[in-house]
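Thread title: Can someone regenerate the structure for this chain?

I was given the following input by a collaborator and told the matching structure tokens would be attached. They weren't. Posting the sequence so someone can regenerate them.
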Amino acid sequence: MLLKNTFAKTPPMGWNSYDYYDTTVNEAEIRTNAEYMAKHLKPHGYDYVVVDIQWSDPDAGTDRKNYQYINFSHFTIDEYSRQLPAENRFPTSKNGAGFRPLADYIHSLGLKFGIHIMRGIPRYAAHMHLKIKGSDVTADKVANPYSVSKWNPDMYGVDYQKSGAQEYYNSIFELYAEWGVDFVKVDDICNTNFYIDNPYSAEKEIEMIHKAILNSGRDMVLSLSPGPAVIEKAWHLEKYANMWRITDDFWDNWDLLKNMFERCEVWQNHVSTGCYPDCDMIPFGWLGKGFGDERYTNFTLDEQITLMTLWCIFRSPLMLGAELTKLDAQTLELLTNDEVLHLVINSNGAIQIERDNNHAIWLSKDNNDNSSYLAMFNLSNESQNLSISLKELEINSKVSVSDLWNHKDLNSADTVILANIPAHGAILYKLSNIL
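Best answer:
Regenerated them for you:
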């Protein structure tokens, strides 16, 4: 049974702590954001709450001016080489409870609970020759000291050829199942960017993690980071994961957003049930507190509309990064437009049918009727008129036109769709056949 066929039937939608809190998030902040999500975002399909990197380090973020990840930090770990939540940051994890109490609270809100991990086994566990549950070997015997992260000092890769390697991964996902984890973001695995000549060097660890999730007996979305994912390995990603990043960390920068049209073009034929090329988190609202640089997003409103239109027609997972309690009314309205979000759950076959340096056009189909969705993007620095004929869209009848961002019915069209679009902006139309 393949992982993708058991759950994650639509792209995951939710919130991840990284863009605002970096390595510093604590339990109170997770609960507060979860409560906001349950009240304001869950009715629109957002339901995952994900604790991102360094949740096991009691000192994370305390020397942020010098280190994002503290070198040689002794984070919280059990006798079996498994990371545990830092009790000073996650107080309900005391007495061996782990993330179970927090997960239970998230579930009580009708939401789902996720965590971030780095691939591999803690270096500290290898150096101290700690045990591996279910195995007679110790951590140093499965650790590969020649497989490390370019940007994080915490872990050694796991050598799949060694006895105890699968048992190690089985043991950590057994623990996550006990905690009630629904989503695991595994980092330094989709693209092991330290190894330029072999960016998919963690291929066997992906397979071990996939097997460990199946062995755990609990459904967990498997999300792989960072990107860019290796297109030649699309078949492998589709077989063993639910989400994989098609970009490195994405931030609120127009050049990065413009580049996503090329990345989505490369991956457009690999979106299917349970398999979602991931455009990365949505950096709207207030960001960067944990980085020591709290700021409002650099994206203009038109750029935010462009991002949401592309992410939704492409059917990327939608993971918010802002401090949710600080969302302003305009941003909340943008993120909860149900007519636009409908595409994430109820559309298919999205293709890019035109793209150059100044514009892009995408088309997809509704799952429930014969209607189509047309997205036109102005990638230039000045407003411009964009048009496309119904013939080019392979539509052979007159259509009614609905503007999904503005909730307006426009004039019907029988030959051409025309729109004036602001710089860096987009339109999203629903086209319904008129018999």
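The chain has twelve helices and 21 strands.
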